[in-house]
């Protein structure tokens, strides 16, 4: 049917005018501006879930993008090999953001903190790290409520939050550390390490941050118990007495593995690769394989300090390697 001449009537003119008024008008050379300003990225600083009768809260202590993961992971491999693994997993080849994630376990009778973050003098101090003390409030806690502080090991990003302004950050707490770990750092053996090394710096910090608390400290053997349902798991290699912990309530289980991984892809895909901060490289690699195999075989949730926040997930066996599966809704059932 052929179209004739269209003569606009009053209704079509009013409709067109309304449409023009409702649409944004861009003049030539003008710049469109959003009504709201750009605010920058934002992420939550705590993550909480139930584990049987226990309540678990992970708290973000730092968020910083750094060079790596080589040589932090894959120190003994060519940098290009690590970078290729990153690219294959859709990750930047030369930059990554490690997690720094202390864990609070509320058993109903005790509030137990595993690791204290960077504090004022750790690897990632304020303003981009050392957030634990300030993050407790938004997560629903006060430092005075912490009954027990457990150190998986004595590296600066795990013991740095023990003190605030030179005073104990958790004034009512008792402290727990591995017997072997404490004995090593107290011996002064680390003083012979190069002065720019993490081992030397950890030894110096240990004297100020850990030793003065020894009167309120318990020393765990491997498989020792922190509280009912919480026992140590030997995980030596990263440090001489590094410990992981098995946490269980009403048949629900969580493996808190400290520094058994420094990157959720590289560490698990290549557990045999050396880690820069492992004090015993071969033992560290053997520990990773054993701990990953335990997590994968028993299909238990894992709290992994250095994986991306909220630093909770599962481990899947992938041939002779392993794969990290970040938590979604599994722990909310």
Strand order of the largest sheet: 1-2-5-6-7-10-11
Number of domains: 1
Q: Would you identify the CATH architecture?
A: 4-Layer Sandwich
Class per helix and strand makeup: alpha+beta
Distance separating the two termini? 63 Å
Largest sheet: 7 strands, mixed
Overall shape: globular
Could you please describe the fold and organization of this structure?
The chain has a single domain, classed as Metallo-beta-lactamase, Chain A (4-Layer Sandwich). It has a 7-stranded mixed β-sheet. It is of the alpha+beta class and about 325 residues long. The longest helix is centred in the C-terminal third of the chain and has 18 residues, at about 280-300. It has helices at about 10-20, 80-90, 130-140, 155-160, 180-185, 200-210, 265-270, 280-300, and strands at about 45-50, 55-60, 65, 95, 105, 110-115, 150, 165, 165-170, 175-180, 215-220, 225, 230-235, 245-250, 250-255, 300-305, 310-320, 320-325. It is globular. The model is unreliable at about 1-10 and about 10-25 (pLDDT under 50). The N and C termini lie far apart (about 65 Å).
List keywords for this structure.
333 residues, Metallo-beta-lactamase, Chain A, seven-stranded mixed β-sheet, 8 helices, 23% strand, disordered N terminus
Short description:
23% of the residues lie in helices and 23% in strands. It has 333 residues and is an alpha+beta fold. The strands form four sheets. The protein has a seven-stranded mixed sheet. The protein has a seven-stranded mixed sheet with strand order 12-13-14-15-16-17-18. The chain has a two-stranded antiparallel ribbon with strand order 3-4.
